[in-house]
Amino acid sequence: MITYLSEIKEEMKKIGLDDLIIKLDHIAYRVKKGERVKAMVELANAVPYHEFKSFKVISMNAITSCIKLDETLPVIVVSEGLAEDSIVEKYVEKYGGRIHHLAYLVKDIEKVVEIQKKRGIKFTTDKIIGSEEEGIKQIFTIPTQTANHIIEYIQRFGDFDGFFTPSNIGALMKSTEKLGEA
Ligand SMILES: [Fe+2]
Fold first, then answer.
1. How far is the CA of 161 from the centre of ligand 1 (A)?
2. SS3 letters for 94-114?
């Protein structure tokens, strides 16, 4: 297994992916309606996280809070649906409260997606969502077979520190909606 991983690492180095993927940007949880604060408290009891922003996501009828340890470490994003028909609540009803995706910050998302498509990685949308003007570009892979979470590739521009923009959240959620029902 270790040998196999080192072969992948070698391949990634050769095709340039090694340099394009920078770090883990955020980890996104989806939890049961009414359990967002409880989830954050649980995490903060284990590790001294502090809350840095919360916002309502109208298009998925959900509320999202973000906690972090410090500026350099990945942000933890916790979402809960506000009603039974929320995409988040439907997902949680099916799979339980869990990690929905791990998001990796990349340098050139077009290049990353081009390379990964050639390697057979499948995405929930054909196109990358967002734009440089909006400060963010992102795309989701289909869920892993072993743990059923998604990998997100994210590229940030300027000082944008959000996780999606109002104009792309609808498209983004639509792209994973079928995953919640799959
Ligand atoms: Fe994300």
1. 11
2. HHCCEEEEEEEEECCHHHHHH
- DSSP H or E stretch at residue 93: helix 87-95
Query: How far apart are alpha carbons 9 and 100 in whole angstroms?
Result: 25
30 Cα: distance to centroid of ligand 1 (angstroms): 11
100 CA to middle of ligand 1, Å?
A: 9
The CA 3 to ligand 1 mean position distance, Å, reads 31
In this predicted model, what pLDDT tens digit does every residue of 7-54 receive, in sequence order?
Answer: 999 999 999 999 999 999 999 999 999 999 999 999 999 999 999 899
> Per residue in 130-175, pLDDT tens?
999 999 999 999 999 999 999 999 999 999 988 887 666 666 666 6
Q: How far is the CA of 8 from the centre of ligand 1 (A)?
A: 25
Q: How far is the CA of 99 from the centre of ligand 1 (A)?
A: 11
Q: Do 92 and 68 meet the contact criterion of CB atoms below 8 Å apart?
A: no
What domains lie within the chain, and their CATH numbers? 15-181 (3.10.180.10)
| Other beta carbons less than 10 A from residue 109's beta carbon | 21
Torsions phi, psi of 149, nearest 5? Answer: -110, 160
